[in-house]
């Protein structure tokens, strides 16, 4: 720094450069994906100053990090504007799995500390149903889980985060327009409500705002903005669970959720196809990037047994177990291919409620597993700290990432 001459610089220097000053400057370089500065993240193990030449060592979370060029530009910019610096050199390194794990905890902690306000109660369990690819049954599973949890007496929010490809309204047989009115002095969207047994579903979807035919117009809208609005401006009430039906493909919504509701836990749906390695990789990668812990895998479209007892594994077998294994989380269930499940969707009556076939039975077992084992409802006042658990799961995701060499 100009006003604090340092012994390592020559007397002719007008602006002395110290490793400390450079490190301080690097605190304004924010890892674009993690939203935390690279010094806090432990990505800068060394800063060496030789006169007016600076060498910064940057450890990337993964060697082939796509953000390398961006980080390089930012680091170079920040350091070279420092008076007294002539040249900036970057030496690249790669983190060990332990270091990477620590970075993830830091980023996750930071996300939680700086999470903006949402209208979701602190005690609400937020479960996002996601997949590595589209059309595997996310929406069908989401509404069946939600209906099953409601049938067990819970108050369950359903957020259709598939903003323009919404299917939740049809799957639940709901179509009324959502109301909006003042709640506690603020205008709020009121979810559509459906009572199931002793429980209740509170459902929010763009499908309650626009006609299916005009949904395309929403394409221009920033997805994360829409989801953010649904999380902030909906009068959700005191939910036991909030289930989120994730859109296929995009990582934007995932990243948005990680920022807005960092305590979201993910359930990954997969088909039984043995291309599991790729799917596992994608799902694990997705989870690791967004710091949302995966709590379980559900295999859908598994083998069905016809009335003659013959098993038909139309979509292969073993994919669910392989993925659960790779991410080191439980396989919560395998839902067989069954016409009744699709028909239940067409009728707006989730098969989990009154279905008698094997798909309904399997779905009811998953609901039980979720509410009694992997994600039991939290008590009213005592918010449970999930950090230990999340860290453990993140470690598992890391291990899967390492194994997959992503
Ligand atoms: N176990 C099953 N047996 C029979 N049909 C099923 C089963 N699971 C899902 N389907 C059918 O497969 C289709 C896709 O399911 P769904 O819409 O739930 O998938 P998705 O993952 O949400 O798709 P997208 O990625 O487009 O959002 C639907 O027609 C649904 O009825
Ligand atoms: Mg869907």
Q: What fraction of the residues are assigned to beta strands by DSSP?
A: 15-25%
Q: Helical proportion?
A: 25-40%
Number of helices: 13
How many domain regions? 2
General shape = globular
- Tell me, rounded to a whole number, the average pLDDT: 81
Taking the sheet with the most strands, its summary is: 8 strands, mixed
Per the CATH scheme, the topology name of the largest domain is Rossmann fold
CATH architecture of the largest domain: 3-Layer(aba) Sandwich
The unique ligands bound to this protein are: adenosine-5'-triphosphate, magnesium ion
Structural class: alpha/beta
CATH class of the largest domain: Alpha Beta
Rounded Rg: 25 Å
CATH superfamily of the largest domain: P-loop containing nucleotide triphosphate hydrolases
Distance between the termini: 41 Å
Extract low-pLDDT stretches. 1-14, 380-394
Please provide the ordered H/E string of secondary-structure elements. Answer: HEEHEHEHEHEEEEHEHEHEEEHEHHHH
- What is the topology, as strand order, of the major beta sheet? 8-9-5-10-4-11-12-15
Layout of secondary structure:
Layout: H1 19-26, E1 46-50, E2 53-60, H2 68-80, E3 87-94, H3 97-113, E4 125-131, H4 138-151, E5 155-160, H5 168-171, E6 179-183, E7 186-190, E8 192-196, E9 199-204, H6 223-232, E10 241-245, H7 252-260, E11 265-270, H8 276-290, E12 294-302, E13 304-305, E14 311-312, H9 319-327, E15 331-336, H10 339-347, H11 351-354, H12 358-374, H13 387-404
Parallel strand pairs: 2-3, 4-10, 4-11, 5-9, 5-10, 11-12, 12-15
Antiparallel strand pairs: 1-2, 6-7, 8-9, 13-14
Helix pairs in contact: 3-13, 4-12, 6-7, 8-9, 8-13
């Amino acid at each position: 720094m100009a006003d604090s001459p340092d012994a390592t610089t020559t007397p002719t220097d007008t602006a002395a450069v110290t490793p400390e000053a450079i490190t301080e400057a690097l605190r304004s370089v924010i890892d674009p994906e993690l939203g935390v500065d690279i010094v806090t993240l432990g990505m800068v193990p060394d800063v060496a100053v030789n006169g007016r030449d600076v060498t910064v060592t940057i450890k990337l979370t993964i060697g082939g990090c796509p953000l390398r060029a961006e980080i390089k530009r930012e680091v170079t910019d920040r350091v070279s504007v420092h008076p007294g610096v002539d040249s900036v050199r970057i030496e690249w390194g790669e983190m060990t799995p332990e270091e990477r794990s620590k970075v993830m905890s830091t980023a996750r902690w930071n996300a939680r500390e700086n999470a903006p306000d949402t209208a979701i109660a602190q005690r609400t369990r937020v479960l996002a149903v996601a997949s590595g690819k589209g059309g595997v049954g996310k929406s069908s599973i989401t509404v069946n889980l939600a209906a099953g949890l409601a049938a067990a007496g819970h108050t369950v929010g359903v957020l259709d985060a598939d903003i323009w490809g919404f299917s939740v309204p049809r799957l639940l047989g709901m179509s009324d327009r959502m109301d909006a009115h003042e709640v506690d002095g603020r205008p709020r969207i009121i979810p559509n409500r459906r009572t199931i047994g002793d429980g209740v579903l509170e459902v929010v979807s763009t499908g309650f705002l626009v006609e299916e035919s005009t949904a395309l117009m929403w394409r221009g809208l920033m997805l994360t903005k829409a989801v953010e609005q649904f999380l902030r401006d909906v009068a959700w009430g005191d939910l036991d669970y909030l289930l989120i039906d994730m859109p296929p493909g995009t990582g934007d919504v995932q990243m948005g959720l990680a920022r807005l509701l960092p305590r979201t836990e993910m359930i990954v749906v997969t088909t039984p196809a043995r291309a599991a390695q790729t799917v596992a990789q994608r799902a694990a990668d997705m989870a690791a990037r967004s710091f949302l812990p995966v709590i379980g895998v559900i295999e859908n479209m598994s083998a069905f047994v016809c009335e003659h007892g013959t098993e038909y594994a139309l979509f292969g077998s073993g994919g669910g177990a392989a993925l659960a294994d790779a991410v080191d989380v439980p396989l919560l269930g395998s839902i067989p291919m069954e016409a009744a499940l699709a028909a239940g969707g067409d009728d707006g009556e989730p098969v989990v409620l009154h279905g008698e076939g094997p798909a309904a039975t399997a779905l009811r077992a998953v609901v039980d597993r979720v509410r009694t084992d992997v994600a039991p409802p939290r008590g009213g006042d005592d918010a449970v700290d999930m950090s230990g658990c999340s860290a453990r799961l993140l470690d598992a995701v890391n291990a899967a990432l390492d194994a997959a060499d992503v």
